[in-house]
Amino acid sequence: MSAILTITDPNGRVWESGLIPGTTYTLGRAKDNDIVLNDRRVSRKHAHILAMDDRYTLVDGTFENGQLVRSVNRVFVNGLPQLEHVLEQGDIITIGESSLEFRMIKPVAETDSVQAGNKSIPISLLHDISIPPDIPTVEEPAIEQPTTGVNYDDAPLGHTQVLISANEIIGRQSNLSLESAIATPEEVKDLRRKAKILALLFEMSKTLGTVFDLKEIFEKATDLIFRGTPADRVVALLVDEPNGRGNTDLSLHQIAVKTRDESIEKITEKLTVSRTITQKVMREGVALLSQDAKTDEQFFGAESIVSQGVRSTICAPLITESGVHGVVYADRLDPFAAFTPDHLELISAVAAQTALTVETVKAHKRLAREEVARANYSRFMPEYVVKQLLNDPGSFRLGGANQTVTVLFADIRGFTALSERENPERVVSLLNRYFSAMSEIIFAHGGTLDKYIGDGLMAIFGAPTATPEDALNAVKAAVAMQKRLASLNQELLIDGFTPISVGIGLHTGEATIGYVGSNKRSEYTAIGDTVNLASRLESNALGGQVLLSDATAKACGGLLPLTQQQPITVKNRTQAVDLFEVNWQ
After folding, report:
1. What is the pLDDT of residue 176?
2. Strand (E) positions, 353-447?
3. C-alpha dihedral over 8, 194, 280, 238, to 10 degrees?
């Protein structure tokens, strides 16, 4: 019974080799093996398979001068090291970084054969086997495929695709043979290629470290792509905000486009960017090389280089941990000089480096906007409210919700007479010093400064986030305000002002909390009977008094020294309001 080995090499290339009974197959890195593994961690003569009847035995090592010489890095079957193993259906063989899957196939009647490598394969197996050409050398690099398998999309993406993961930009580990410190010519050439990429990227990193303009960033990136690849056109496309892999709803906009020279600039003006390619790259987070991509009908009739309908395209994601910021899209228009996988690696590396810079620039801009917003909001709201607004800008919308809050009103007594005696500049100076001191106390106790009303102020405790301690924090803030006023009056006396006194009123209840106003100007505030009653209590408070409603007193849980006052009647209420005064002195 014949068998097949499906082989995946370290570069992600997948191919198959047929096995027929009565034959011994050698496996290794040397070119004279029956199955050549293009893997630097594989020994030159690593293993062999004895195919006898329906029995295929895998042996670690090969015979040299009549003796069995074992490999350096061993042979693994289904994850376990094996010196000798009879292969069964579905066994996974691991040699170095290469993976080989073993499967048996049914015998067939035909006896004709074709030559594949060093062995003769029955022609009847051709419907099951994809016979690769001889293992490509470094001069003719293999077309890389993703480790998850070959992914073809002939119609929109061209006849040949090469995909590499964003995490595999500049090759993998060295793959230098562990048997010898002497590198082969292929290894030297591969290392030189990677050294060139690293040198270009190092130069790019030094340049981009001082650039904070997106267009200038892509100018540097496209220059590097033209130096390292035969690209004729490079287009940079960005999304407004980074999106997760799998989300292609956000539209791309062009941030930069550049051609190699003016002679093809007019031709490239007629070319479009493939939506299919860009969405695939953004959706899967992979870099893509598409050969012989079909052009749109509008290109026929243009110059001969375009009208042939032959294009080689590379598209690489601008990807970071936060998501995909956009893509770099490069075209090669000469049908006789297509892109290679090496060019794909370089453009992917440039895209990755550019993506980090783009993310940094966006972060700087976002932080600058947040700093301005923070400075504006912090004048009226405590820090935790400001953070909530910055983290969830969507919460800034007109409308509100009902919730229980404690509202505080404070007003300077005798301010009208004071303002008549003092000049306006000194009155403004006094108010600024008073409001600054009181606002700090409100914020320190978790309150939100709703507004300044002439010589008075309004604060809310319990919005936007409510806690069981809101009422108690509001009363503690009122007491702290009265105590701070005593020290503030000492400072005002030194500057020639007469002492001032403040009356404070608080009430706890349900109110509508949210943004009120228009789309152009709105303010975060509380509306309802709770606000009106707190204002009425403040108007009944004498200088130095802190008056509470019965609802606020109960919400404090009896933790404060209170004196019950005579109930008062307030406007728009038929029943008298029970009243308490805080004994704060």
Report:
1. 45
2. 399-413
3. 160
Residue 468 sits at the vertex; the CA angle it makes with 558 and 549, to the nearest 5 degrees, is 50
Dihedrals φ, ψ of 13, to 5°? -75, 135
What is the C-alpha to C-alpha distance for residues 115 and 133, in angstroms, rounded to an integer? Answer: 11
**Identity of the residue numbered 184:** T
Q: pLDDT value at position 337? A: 67
Residue spans of the chain under pLDDT 50: 108-156, 159-160, 169-180, 242-248, 293-310
C-alpha distance from residue 129 to each of 24, 122, 574, 575 (Å): 19, 10, 94, 94
Look up residue 360 and give its two tokens: 């940094």
> Which residues have a Cβ under 8 Å from the Cβ of 490 and sit 6 or more positions away?
none
Q: Which residues contact 521 (CB under 8 A, 6 or more apart)?
A: none
Q: What is the largest CA-CA distance in the chain?
A: 118
AA letter at 182: I
Distance between CA atoms of residues 102 and 58, nearest Å: 11
According to the model, what pLDDT value does residue 488 have? 95
User: Encoding tokens for residue 209?
Assistant: 């470290």
- Whole-number Å distance between alpha carbons of 383 and 48: 70
DSSP H or E segment with residue 312: strand 311-320
What type of residue is 574?
A: T
In whole angstroms, give the CA distance from residue 201 to residue 180: 30
Phi, psi angle pair for 365, to nearest 5°: -65, -40
Render pLDDT for 246-260 as a digit per residue (tens, 0 to 9). 444 557 888 888 888
Listed in sequence order, the residues at least 6 apart from 377 whose beta carbon sits closer than 8 Å to its beta carbon are 385, 386, 389
- Residue 100 exposure: Cα atoms within 13 Å on the Cβ side: 28
Taking the CA atoms of 524, 530, 535 and 538 in sequence, report the sign of the dihedral they define. Answer: negative
Q: What is the Cα–Cα distance from 137 to 189, expressed in whole angstroms? A: 11
- Alpha-carbon distance 20 to 24, whole Å? 9
**Beta-bridge partners for 62:** 69
Q: What is the pLDDT of residue 211?
A: 64
Between CA 57 and CA 59 the distance in angstroms is 6
Residue 359's DSSP bridge partners are none
**Cβ(14)–Cβ(150) under 8 Å?**
yes
Residue 162 bridge partners (DSSP): 289
pLDDT tens-digit series, residues 94-153: 998 899 999 987 654 444 443 434 444 443 333 333 333 333 333 333 323 333 332 223
Alpha carbon 40 to its chain centroid, in Å, reads 35
Taking residue 407's Cβ as centre, other Cβ atoms within 10 Å add up to 31
Cβ-based neighbour number of residue 118 at 10 Å: 14
Q: Read off the tokens for 167.
A: 């995490």
Closest CA to 326 of 240, 446, 261: 240
Q: Smallest Cα–Cα separation from 534: which of 549, 544, 514, 546?
A: 549
Query: What's the pLDDT at 114?
Result: 38
Q: Distance of CA 452 to CAs 340, 380, 389, 416, 538, Å? A: 68, 10, 21, 16, 14
Output b/e per residue, 539-572; b: 16+ Cβ within 10 A.
eebebebbbbbebbbebbeeebebeeeeeeeeee
Rounded Cα distance between 438 and 204, Å, is 53
Helix (H, G, I), strand (E, B) or coil at 441: helix
